[in-house]
Design a protein that fits this description.
The protein is mainly β and about 160 residues long. It has a single domain, classed as Tumour Suppressor Smad4 (Sandwich), CATH 2.60.200. Helices cover about 5% and strands about 30% of the residues. The protein contains one helix and eleven strands; from the N terminus they run H-E-E-E-E-E-E-E-E-E-E-E. The strands form two sheets. The chain has a six-stranded antiparallel beta sheet, with no helix packed on it. Strands 4-3-5-6-9 form a five-stranded mixed beta sheet, with no helix packed on it. Pfam families: FHA (PF00498).
Length: about 160
């Protein structure tokens, strides 16, 4: 039996290149890595973050957030809490004020109110521990002086 010795830096003709290998997952689907520059233009949804006029607050550090995971935390800046959407340091906002999660059974996104001061969803009050609220494109979430507009990615 003849065995072929290969230099570790040499690529076999029948094996994928390193870039092809890293772009394919186990089921043959394309994978995009975190360091890929296209990652900022893809996601399940996006949140546009603004501050109400006259609120005397700085503009959000990240005015547009592309959602690339199934759970997003919104809350007050804190050393102990790492939020995806930083709502500043106002004591009117809880460290874990709200979360947005994808409900796989129902096939849609839901908003969970965790802050004691509640929030407004499409100008309607949503008190602390309200039942989950279904989110649709164009929905607006008001937390203190912060306005978040939810937009889902278009399904192909």
């Amino acid at each position: 039996m003849v065995t072929e010795e290969m230099n570790p830096n040499q690529q076999r003709e029948d094996s994928p290149t390193a870039s092809e290998e890293t772009q394919m997952d186990m089921e043959g689907g394309v994978r995009i890595h975190d360091d890929d520059p296209r990652i900022t233009r893809v996601g399940f949804a996006k949140i546009d973050h603004t501050v109400m006029e006259g609120a005397n607050l700085p503009a959000p550090a990240q005015p547009t957030l592309y959602i690339r995971k199934y759970s997003v935390n919104l809350g007050r800046r804190s050393k102990s809490q790492d939020n995806d959407v930083d709502l500043g340091d106002s004591m009117n906002i809880s460290r874990q004020h709200a979360s947005i999660c994808y409900n796989f059974q129902k096939g849609h996104w839901e908003l969970f109110v965790k802050g004691k001061n509640g929030l407004f969803h499409n100008r309607k009050p949503a008190p602390y521990q309200s039942p989950p609220i279904r989110l649709r494109s164009g929905d607006m979430i008001h937390i203190a002086a912060h306005v978040l507009t939810w937009t889902e990615a278009q399904r192909q």
